[in-house]
TrEMBL record:
PROSITE patterns: PROKAR_LIPOPROTEIN. This is Spermidine/putrescine-binding protein. It comes from the Bacteria. It holds the Pfam family SBP_bac_8. It is found in: Periplasm. SUPFAM superfamilies: Periplasmic binding protein-like II. Keywords: Periplasm, Signal, Transport. Residues 1-19 form the signal peptide. The lineage of its organism: Bacteria, Pseudomonadati, Fibrobacterota, Fibrobacteria, Fibrobacterales.
Amino acid sequence: MKKLLLALLVLAVAFLAGCKGKDKSAEKPTKVTVMIYSEYIDPAMLTDFESKTGYKLQLELYEAQEEMISKLQTVGTAQYDVIIASDVVIQQMIHLGLIGKIDMNKIPNRVNIADQFRNPSYDPTNEYTIPYLWGTTGILYRDSTIDPLHVSYSMLFDAKQTKGKFSLLEESRSMLSMALQAKGFDANSTNKDEINQAVEYILQAKKDPHFLGFDGSVGGKDKVLSKMDWAAIVFNGEAMAAIDEDPSLQFAIPEEGSFMWVDAMTLSSKAPNVDGAYQFMNYILDANIGAQLAKYINYATPNNASLEALDKEFTGNRVINPTADEIKRMVFLKDPGDAARLFDEAWTIVKTR
């Protein structure tokens, strides 16, 4: 009899433990985890998003695309719900299985996306991305005697023209593409000889005693502000933040050209909170929230409805919204496909020599 009672007791404990486990696994997620560049969202939005959705917004920060992809491959995608990534790496992330398709019906505010950001080359079927912000890459420098409309890459790559210490951008594809343009080649070239010439051009700059190293856009901006750097290659949002703090600074799109980019919201392939991910994407696409984000971060918005909420001072600012002439000199970077290996090999040479 005692053995029977003991057996029943063991079964009861096991049953209760099982129920507890099931209850725990069935708990509703309480947070949305977003992998994002540093300094890339208005902090006020964290509490606002939580008050409107009930989800706590948790940010996982990174500085460069290579760092982001490496981390996702190392720790997996199950820790993140939304990954904000640059257009140039979207196809790579799809091929690696890092992001999944988005149910666009869950994002009603998608109607606010401007036409020019629909069916982009990096996501032609509009299945994997929702645009977040867009911008440009150029040179931030401290010299009021140099007209920003007539700046050449030679101010950094030619030791005879460099007037002070400088930093280059710590992003392989971005930096190599700018070096290709500086040499007069297509930013999207996959010609091995042209890529090698771009490598040699960067190595030439590295030999200059003024060269301080490679930095993320935020780091480059901070060094120019602190006068550690005379110039740095940065994204225009960081440039605008620096100019707001020190109006004597200048930002230029070099005459040889540069590139425009779109950062997009993507759904992690193993997102633990898919509903929360969709709510975050829809929140960002709200007209007023999109305008708030653009003004705080100093980047142009792909949200057509947000443009009506932005003043002319913002929309007419050439650092944030480049002029027609500057746009003509810029391109969007394309997925290099199999040629990605050439860029990886080239960047290894740049960093190790």
